[in-house]
Design a protein that fits this description.
The chain has 362 residues and is mostly beta strands. It contains two helices and 25 strands.
Amino acid sequence: ATQGQIQDVENAVDEKLKKTNEGFDILVGEDTADNRANVALGKNNKETVEFAAGNSLDVTLDKDNKKVIYSLKDDIKVGKAGQDGKNGKIAVNGKDGETVTIDGKDGKIESKAKDGTTVTVNGKDGTIGAQGPKGADGKDGASVTINGKDGTTIINGSTDENGKKNTITLNGKDGTMGVDGKDGNGVTLNGQDGSIGIKGKDGTNKVQITTKDGKVGVDGKDGDTRLVVKEGTKTHELATMNDGMQFDGDNSGTVNKLKLNQKLTVTGGITDNAKLSQDNNIGVIADGTSTLTLRLAKAIKGLDSITFGAGDTAMKIDGATKTISNVSKITGLTNTTLPTDLKDLKADQAASQGQLRALAEK
């Protein structure tokens, strides 16, 4: 070979060695100077490329097969304690359309089924929620929300065609449990004061039911526990079967105390209805407070007889036979003068002793 040919070979070898010694670049992510590094070859001290593992990763080397193997740790952590989470999400898609999403920044985990049923765990605001699928009309389905910060749980039924739904609310902070119907009816149990709140349709006619020491009952005892209904500023005590009413008459000092469902008997002494007058001879007068007074009519009608006294000497006026029995004498007569013409005497009128004496003296 000539000198020139040898020089050409040397130049070619030098060029190859130069390119080889330039090594190769490593690029991570976007092609920028900060994301690119060069690994040179041909140096006396060989440069080494390290395969490092970040948070939640393990890296191992299979020397025999010259493999670098990455794997997830059993405990996965993203970000440092006390710092905001990193932007970005991890999503797992199931073969049947289910998805699980982990939001690193907000600390939220969401699982969504194919039919739209969604379960959400939010570490930032401390809530757990479950949302059922929408109905055929597109209205929201049933849902459950648990708030760990304020201790509330809200359960909503499906939304109907009018946009209304039933709701149950449990408030651990205030100690209340409420059930609200879709038409506005509602019941609330209040553990703090032991009361029950009730409201009617559209939230009207609100009342609160509780207990307290009640007023003196019919038995004269106080301090009995009673149900109390509060309606705005009004308070109503509910009676029990041990409550009732008191009755008395003219015999002062004797009071009949009757509890609820006990019978009050008013008697007059006659049990045969055929022997009772069917005319209105007694009036009942109310005084506007607590007294009813029975008064006898001035003109009594429909009586068969009247008996004065008792035993064999009792005087009886009999309306049926038009007789008066057991009468020794009658005084106070006004027709004591005979008519001038004795032809005017009446057959149905009795003569008094004075009239008979006047007749004898003629």
